Amino acid sequence: MLDDIIAIFSILVSGWSVYNSLLAMYGFTWSPTKLTNYSGKTFSIIIPAKNEEKVLPRLLDRLINQEYDKSKYEIIVVEDGSTDKTYEVCKQYEETYTRDFIKCLKLDQPKVPNGKSRALNYALKIANNEIIGIFDADTVPKLDVLNQASSWFDNNEVVAVQGKLIPINVTENIVTRFASIEELFHEYSIAGRARLGLFVPLEGTCTFIRKETLEKIGGWNEFTLTEDLDLSISLISQGFQIKYDPMIIAWREVPSSLRWLVKQRLRWYRGHFEVTIRLPQGKKLDPRIIDGFLLIGTPLFMVLNLVNYSLVLIYSTSLFVIAASFVSAASFISFIATVTISRKHLIEFYYSILSLIYMNFVVLLNLTALFMEIVRAPKVWIKTERSGKITSEV
């Protein structure tokens, strides 16, 4: 009986790994037609910012210089309990331009687990335009993201659009290389999902959503650690369409120290467990819902990878050969996908090999996140520190 359980779970996890690897490869090869509309929908761009004086200016410069009708968008910066000069930096821009174009808002220290959600909800109330754009302060968007995004909303059935995110500091150090491999693999798997019409999660930056839809569903959840994933589930469970456009491109920082990588990943992984537990039942079960379960369940599948270490217990049985074959095939396909993605983003080959070790580290972090959720450890939304360094051409 134990032999069967070990083999079944090992094959299940291997199948999940192959599924995501093939999605990543499919997304990697996607080159859709570029859309442009230089004066279409109106946008309210919201930037939640806390201790972001290093990176906020470069984002504001990119947004101010967008290739889009300036009368069709506004920029709202919500400074949320900073201890540096984030607010002062923003005020300099507000004074240089007009308050109708750039608004700087200051909030007190949040009393909810997710200060970012609180900042977004606050800005939503004063936003004047039809489409809400969200950018984290470390993001550096291309100059055409607004004219690209605008075209999607000509389709009334589309309520949200997610752009493609690329690490901006890939080669800063060892930590950023491994974090970039992990995030790029995830990003291309999202592209693969979108190309097949499956579940598209919003990623919290370079994200565009209809204001009326946000107001209808009550904005962002201030009591979850992953507000973007929570919002994605709320949208698809009500039948709304989320699109992903790999031609809407923005760069963002990955953590540059092991300490901040661990803090960020624990928040992300634990947030997945929260959403999995609270996932509402849709009235109609479609492929997006099923795929959503598979993506949201990523931390659980990562923890189940531990069962592969138990294969030694069934070494003397015929099941071992079957299970080991699945594990080997899954590892090989995942490795090929990792090498392909790494080469495109100029990550040295040996990091693709070492990423196999890094993934064991990720498994341990997911296990830790699961334990924190089981013992109901306090929820704390910890903002990731930025280095402000750019190692990629943007």
From TrEMBL:
Name-wise, this protein is: Glycosyltransferase
Q: Recall the GO molecular function terms of this protein's record.
A: glycosyltransferase activity
Gene3D superfamilies xrefs:
Spore Coat Polysaccharide Biosynthesis Protein SpsA, Chain A (3.90.550.10)
InterPro entries listed in its UniProt record:
Nucleotide-diphossugar_trans (IPR029044)
Show the stretches that span the lipid bilayer: 6-28, 289-307, 313-337, 349-372
One Pfam family, short name please? Answer: Glyco_tranf_2_3
Coiled-coil annotation reads: none
The lineage's top-level taxon is Archaea
Sorted UniProt keywords? Glycosyltransferase, Membrane, Transferase, Transmembrane, Transmembrane helix
The organism named in the record is Stygiolobus azoricus
Write down the PANTHER family for this protein, in alphabetical order. POLY-BETA-1,6-N-ACETYL-D-GLUCOSAMINE SYNTHASE (PTHR43630)
